[in-house]
Design a protein that fits this description.
Layout: E1 3-7, H1 11-23, E2 27-31, H2 34-40, E3 48-52, H3 61-71, E4 77-81, H4 88-93, E5 98-101, H5 106-117, H6 119-126
Parallel strand pairs: 1-2, 1-3, 3-4, 4-5
Helix pairs in contact: 5-6
């Protein structure tokens, strides 16, 4: 079973995303901030991270990307934001596998996770 961490300070988005992913068969762990996620020290034991960019607690999703790319570069991180393209270039430069603009559909999210966690699928789409 694939373990996905969802990080978003908006409880409604976090819980809705968690329920969607669980209904798709994923094991989901949720966090209300990037700092809370980092303090849990589980980055090495998960399959994918889905994080918002703008969050309280002094650590943004971009800060998380920067730290994770050094500590667990094999763990794919997907970024979601309601701010459109504002952070897209920065997120990709820091190693984000995908950038989802809120609101996104369930199908877009599931496809992004499958591409990030199954590199062979991603390679097929690029051919």
């Amino acid at each position: 079973m694939c373990t996905i961490c969802v990080i978003d300070d908006d409880i409604f988005i976090r819980e809705a995303t968690e329920m969607l992913l669980q209904s798709e068969g994923f094991d989901v762990k949720s966090f209300s901030s990037a700092r809370e996620f980092v303090e849990a020290n589980i980055l090495g034991g998960i399959d994918c991270v889905l994080t918002d960019i703008e969050m309280p607690g002094g650590m943004s999703g971009l800060d998380l990307l920067s730290q994770a790319s050094k500590n667990a570069p094999e763990c794919p991180i997907l970024v979601m934001s309601g701010r459109g393209d504002t952070f897209r270039a920065s997120a990709y430069a820091l190693g984000a596998r995908d950038y989802l603009m809120k609101p996104f559909s369930a199908a877009e999210l599931i496809e992004a996770i499958h591409k990030a966690t199954h590199p062979e699928v991603r390679a097929l789409h690029l051919q």
